[in-house]
Amino acid sequence: MSELNPETAIALTVDPVSHDLGAFEVRRAVPQAKCRMVGPFVFIDQFGPAQYDIGNGMDVRPHPHIGLSTVTYLMQGAIDHRDSLGSFATIRPGAVNLMTAGSGIVHSERSPQSERRAGGRIFGTQTWLALPEAKEEIDAGFESVSADDLPIVEDTCAKARVIMGSLWGATSPTTCHAATINADIILAPGGAMPIEAEADERALLLVEGEAEVDGERLDMFKLAVLRPGRAMTLRSEKGARVVLMGGEAMTRRHVWWNFVSSSRDRINQAKEDWRAGKFAKVPGDEEEFIPLPDQPKTVSYP
C-alpha cells in the first residue's frame, strides 16, 4: 500500500493479496493493516475473469457468518446460493445477492450444473458490509435483486448500474442497513462519470481497461481509496470497467474468518458455536461444511 500527498485525488492505493482457489484467483484488498474498512465495506474480494475447465466450478461448502451483510455481484458467470433460512437463488450478471447474517447464518456457494457442463466463466466481486452496532444481532435475511430491478444511469459513452444506495439521482432497491454506495461503472472510449462527494469514504476498483480519476491513473485490480469531501471525475480514453464502493464511516470492527463484530467476545462465542455444531444446517447442502480454521486467512482487529 502506498500513501500519496494530500493534494492528490487518491489517498491510498491498496495492493490486493491474492488467493489461489484452484479454478480461479481471488484478490483481497480489504482488510489489510492500513485499510481495514472503506465506509461499511469491511471485506473486498474480486475474482476473475477466469474460465473453468469443463466439469469444474466453484464449490464453497457451507460456512457461517455473523454481524455482516455479504454482497455478491457478478459480471460473468453464475453461482447457486443456499442458506440456512432455506433460501435458494442463482445469481447471474448484473444482479445482486444480499445476505444479512446478523445473529448468525450458514450458506454455501456452488456453480450450477449448467456452468460445469459448459466450462463457464466467472468474474465479479464479493464484499462484506459491517452492520451498525445496534443491528449486529438482527435476524438473518436474504434478498436477490434482479439486474432489471437495479437502476442504470447513462450518459454519452458512460453507463453505471447502481447496486446499492443512491447515486446520480437514482436509488437501488437493495436494502442498506447503513448508508452505502456501490456501483458498476462501464466507460466506453472517451467516457466520463462524476464521482460525488457526499459519502464519508469512497474507493474505486479498476477491473477492466484503463481509467483515471482527476488525472490520476487507476492500477488494475488495486483499490484506490479517494480523498473525502471532494467531487471528482472518472475518465477513460480507451474504455474501462470500474467498481465504486463506500458509504458512511464506521467504528472499526473485529474480523476473524467469516465473523465480524464490534465485540471480540462475540466472535469467540461464534467460534465455539460453529465448532459445537450449534449453527443451523443448509437445506439441500447438509453433508459438507468448512471446519473452523486454526489460522484463518482473514483476521483484522482495531
TrEMBL record:
Residues noted as binding Fe cation in the record, renumbered to the chain: 63, 65, 107, 109
UniProt cofactor(s): Fe cation
Domain Pirin N-terminal: 24-129
Keyword Metal-binding: yes
Cofactor note: Binds 1 Fe cation per subunit.
Keyword Iron among record annotations: yes
SUPFAM superfamilies, alphabetized: RmlC-like cupins
InterPro entries tied to this protein: Pirin (IPR012093), Pirin_C_dom (IPR008778), Pirin_N_dom (IPR003829), RmlC-like_jellyroll (IPR014710), RmlC_Cupin_sf (IPR011051)
Pfam families: Pirin, Pirin_C
GO terms assigned for molecular function: metal ion binding
Domain Pirin C-terminal: 183-279
Keyword terms, alphabetized: Iron, Metal-binding
Similarity comment text for this entry: Belongs to the pirin family.
Stated name of the protein: Pirin family protein
Organism: Croceicoccus marinus
Organism lineage string: Bacteria, Pseudomonadati, Pseudomonadota, Alphaproteobacteria, Sphingomonadales
